[in-house]
Every structure is written in C-alpha cells, then in structure tokens.
Amino acid sequence: MLTFALLLVGLSITTPEPQAGGASIVMGFQRTEFAVRSNSQALNFPKYSNNGYRQSVEPRPGGFGVHVETRNAAMASRLRGRKVKQLPADLAPLAAVINQHSDAYLADQITHLFAWLQREIELETEYIEDQSTAKIMRTRQANCVGLSNLAIQVLAAMDVKARYVTGIAFQRQDRAKLLLEGSVLHRWIEIHYDDVGWVFADPSGKVNFVEATYMLMGIDTLHPLETTKQLAVGSHVELLKLENGLRTIGRLPGFDPRLRVRPNRLYARP
C-alpha cells in the first residue's frame, strides 16, 4: 500500500523570524478556483462548509473544478476557557500556559496554545515518520502531522472536540500547478465550538481560520480519505484564480508575529 508523507508545503523552506508588533489579526475574505486533472474518473474532493470556510466541487472534462471561499468575520463565541485535565509530564509547561488563561474566552485560550507551539516547536524540513509527543518534546521539532497530533491531544485534555483535516495548502512560493504526491499534502485541524460550530485552524500558525488556498481532500471520520489519497496519486492541481480580500486590522501584542489570528471579538490595536 502506498503511504503518504504529510509535509508542510512551502513553509518548510523559509520560516520568517519573529519581529516586533505582535500577531496579525486578520479579517475579510478570499476566493480561489482550482482545476484538478486526473486519470481516475473515481477521484473527487468533498463539498464542505463550516464556520468561515466553504468548498464546492463541479465536474469538468478530465477532472473537476474546486471553488473555495473563506470569510474571517468575528467568531463571537461566548465559550469560556477551561483547565487542562491531564497531559503527559513533558507537556507540563504548556498545560501551565493554558491554565493560566482559563478565565479567558476559549478562542483566546487556543491562541495561547498555538503561540506556544510556534515558540517552542521548530517546523521540520524533512519527513520524519515518528511524530509522537515523546519525540516532539525530545527534539522540539515536528511537521504538520506532529503539530496537529499535539494540538488535538491538548484540546482533548480540555474537553474540546477536534479532528484531523487533510488537503493541499498552496504557499506563495509554490508553482501554480502541483503534481499530487505525498510531499505536497498538508494536515491541519478542525475545532468544535459548541455555540458557533466547526472551525478550521492550522497549528503551524493560523488560529481559528485557514485561507482559501487550503483545498480540502477529507476530514477524519467524515470522508473516505485513504481511498481519495490513493486515487489522487499522479493528478495535477492548478490554482487558476485567487481573489484576496484578507486584511490585517490590528495586532495582538506579546504574541509571535508569525501567528495570524481570526478575531473572536472586535477589539484590536491599529
């Protein structure tokens, strides 16, 4: 059976150094159009929508088209933070950070979780199969699989539902057309807020949103992901159009500037 190495596309090549100013608060919209060309007539990607993300799929000769729209309006979740119930001893420093902010909104508490991952865990530039918590904390390195594993483990310890997402994330330095193989796949997560629903997030640096350059192949427990990955081998994905209406409206002082955050409440320093 063919196995896929899920790696972070593009971001493993150049990682910006921290700068002053704080994390970006991002609002607005993006729209993209993709063409998927495949020799397999059985290949298809799912139609899907959640809070902030919508993907539609239409048949085309030799494949199908994918349209993605994302909207970063304020989430307005009223869920309060909570304490971490149980984590391995080597994650005690992370548990302490989360518990310190248990009186905040849950959405803001998750910002502190992602900020810790950004600050403490280096993004791996090569595929390493072992992405266990023990390995990550020993080496202080992880790829997108390891970051997602760690985030979901911590969220579970907070009684927050979350699940894995697999797809393709085009980065600025990528070619407009990509050959589908293991090294171009990406993993992120979906978090459930009881009062606003499911929301995408990327533990590599995007809090409570992803851009429209993230194309969904499947969500754990919802879609036949393994079959989709096998059928996708050798297909081409082309980014045909990008309409970018995302804007930085302010900063979160004290947070790593590599973080990009969808606001939960509309307050920001210009």
Task: Please give a handful of descriptors for the protein shown.
5 helices; 15 strands; 33% strand; 9-stranded mixed beta sheet; alpha+beta; single chain; 270 residues; 4-stranded antiparallel beta sheet
Classification by helices and strands: alpha+beta
- Note the run of SSEs as H and E: EEEEHHEHEHEEEEEEHEEE
Number of domains: 1
Shape: globular
Low-confidence stretches: 1-19
Strand content: 25-35%
Q: How many beta-strand segments?
A: 15
Note the main sheet.
9 strands, mixed
| Cα end-to-end separation | 52 Å
Helical residue percent band? 10-25%
Let me know the average pLDDT: 87
- How large, in whole angstroms, is the Cα Rg? 18 Å
Tally of alpha and pi helices: 5
Explain what you see.
The protein is α+β, with helices and mostly antiparallel strands and 270 residues long. It has one domain. Helices cover 20% and strands 33% of the residues. The protein has five helices and 15 strands. It has helices at residues 92-100, 106-120, 133-139, 144-157, 225-232; strands spanning 23-37, 48-50, 53-60, 63-72, 122-123, 141-142, 162-169, 177-179, 185-193, 197-201, 206-207, 214-219, 236-244, 247-252, 260-261. The strands form three sheets. Strands 1, 2, 3, 4, 8, 11, 13, 14 and 15 form a nine-stranded mixed β-sheet that branches. It has a four-stranded antiparallel β-sheet with strand order 10-9-7-12, covered by helices on one side. It has a two-stranded parallel sheet with strand order 5-6. Residues 1-19 have low confidence and may be disordered.
